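Hi Y.,

Following your request, here is the sequence exactly as I used it, all 409 residues.
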Amino acid sequence: MSDATSAAASLRRRSLDAVLAHAWDAEAFTASDVMAAVGLTRSTTIDVLDELVERGLLAEMPNARTVGEYSKGRPARRFAFRPDSAVVVGVDAGRGHVTATVADLRGRALATSRLAVDPERDSPERRRRAAEATVDATLTRAHRDRSDIAALCVGVPAPVDRSGRSPVHHDRFWERMNPGFVDTFAEWAPVVRVENDASLAAVAERAHGAAVGADDFIALLAGERFGAGIWVDGRLLRGAHGGAGETVAFDRVTGVGGAEGLAPRCVDAARDARATGRLPAGSALATIDPAALDAKTVLDLAGAGDAGALAVAQEVGGALSIVAATLGSLFDVRRVVVSGAIAAGAEPIIAAARAALPRALDLPAPEIVASPLGADIVSIGAVAAAVDAARSHALDLLAFAAPDARARA
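Below is the corresponding structure, written out as tokens. Let me know if you'd prefer a different format.
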């Protein structure tokens, strides 16, 4: 290929990328709308729009006169992105469940399926089969099949490197959680992305949650164990082995003492307060069987003003403040988002953590906020990451190749 031909091809690709990027987020639009947005000439814009229609990524709509938006001269041609031209799949492969969501190219969910997994009888092969069965069932519910998938993303409770694989863990836990999902789904989708679950929580928070548009924040999955998805300088941090955000280091942090999340800390603190007689008189925690205590009960009582539960939240908030201060000091983030199912009731803990943040930090202390995304945050992040992957690779996928290229394939 000559230099001139290569330069022309590169320019054409940039034009296609720019127009598709505009179309992906826009409602119905005209060539003039695109010209104003991306700065191409009219002839180039129309040529590129026609190619994207041929590729199946855009549809030509009734013209402006037909829909009453134009009355004089030649009616403007109108176009729209086709979010239904393919699907993406987001999978949350947690320790005790597999959840799959099939969505269109803009991330609108079409169907969701959930399968419980017995962690005591887990194995790599069982986990692979469970993930495959759940995705297949969800495709069926969405009235789509494997050939419709443009990109698929799986979230796992393990570090994940750039190739989608997890390092060896001393008890093989990480390998059970991620039994080669990048290979499992390689024949299902042209683009497969495997990510740590906390990293996908960060993707979800930036796309739809408490960190929309933020460049420096941490999504702290805070339920049973702490896991940190770290977004710094506008990008997700991964690390050499996918271990950025692993929280085993908290074993050695005074005042934290381990990676246990807010839920077990609430239960342990409440039981200890009862056992040692530290509950204030009249606290409802004194009437509950310690074996039946759970974090939701403690936080519901704290939210209702129960003095004993508020004291528990104060204690747990102290540990959260140290976690947030440590992460803020290491990564210089503006915000720590408490994420996952526990976030819905965590405000008493978060308020205590804000009040307890060390005043002697060299850097400004991060803001601590609750996520609005709930228990499905990893699924939300997996879908958002799959959409991002589809956007990045759409023009290279055979399904969206130019007709002559598809004919040659």
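The CA atoms of residues 156 and 178 lie 6 Å apart.

Thanks again,
Q.
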